[in-house]
C-alpha cells in the first residue's frame, strides 16, 4: 500500500466516482491523537504490503477545502483523525480517534 496525498477537490471527486475500494485518512499535524493514530496506521500499512487498495491521506489543516469535500461527498461528519473506506461513492466504514485501525478498515471490505 502506498500513501497518496489528496491536494485537490478534483481528487476527492475521482475517488467518489470510482467503483473500487479506497481508504482515506484525515490527519491533523497539530493534534497529538492524530499523530499517534497516524504512527500506528503507518506501521500497519507498512506491514500490509500485499494489500492493493489505495490509501489516501489529507492534511485537514493545509487542505481544509479537500477535507470538507470528503465529509460532504461521503455524507459523514468531519472528524480528525478519521479513516474512511469508500466504494462507489459511498462511505461503507468510518472510524475516528483511538478507533482507527487498518485491520478494522480492511474487515469492512467483506
Mean pLDDT: 94
Helix content: 25-40%
Radius of gyration from the CA trace? 12 Å
Give the CATH class: Alpha Beta
Number of helices: 4
- How many domains, in number, for the residues? 1
Descriptive account of the structure:
There is one protein chain. The chain is α/β, with parallel strands linked by helices and 110 residues long. It has one domain: Glutaredoxin, CATH 3.40.30. A hairpin with a 2-residue loop joins strand 4 and strand 5. Helix 1 packs parallel to helix 3. The protein starts with a strand and ends with a helix. The model has no long low-confidence stretch (mean pLDDT 94).
Annotate the secondary structure layout:
Blueprint: E1 3-5, H1 9-17, E2 22-27, H2 32-47, E3 55-59, H3 64-74, E4 82-87, E5 90-96, H4 102-107
Parallel strand pairs: 1-3, 2-3
Antiparallel strand pairs: 2-4, 4-5
Helix pairs in contact: 1-3
Amino acid at each position: 500500500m502506498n500513501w497518496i496525498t489528496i491536494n485537490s477537490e478534483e481528487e476527492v471527486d475521482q475517488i467518489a466516482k470510482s467503483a473500487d475500494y479506497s481508504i482515506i485518512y484525515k490527519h491533523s499535524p497539530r493534534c497529538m491523537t492524530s499523530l499517534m493514530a497516524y504512527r500506528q496506521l503507518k506501521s500497519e500499512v507498512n506491514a500490509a504490503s500485499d494489500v492493493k487498495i489505495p490509501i489516501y491521506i489529507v492534511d485537514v489543516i493545509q487542505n481544509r477545502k479537500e477535507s470538507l469535500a470528503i465529509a460532504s461527498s461521503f455524507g459523514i461528519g468531519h472528524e480528525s483523525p478519521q479513516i474512511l473506506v469508500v466504494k462507489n461513492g459511498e462511505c461503507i466504514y468510518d472510524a475516528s480517534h483511538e478507533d482507527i485501525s487498518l485491520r478494522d478498515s480492511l474487515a469492512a471490505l467483506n
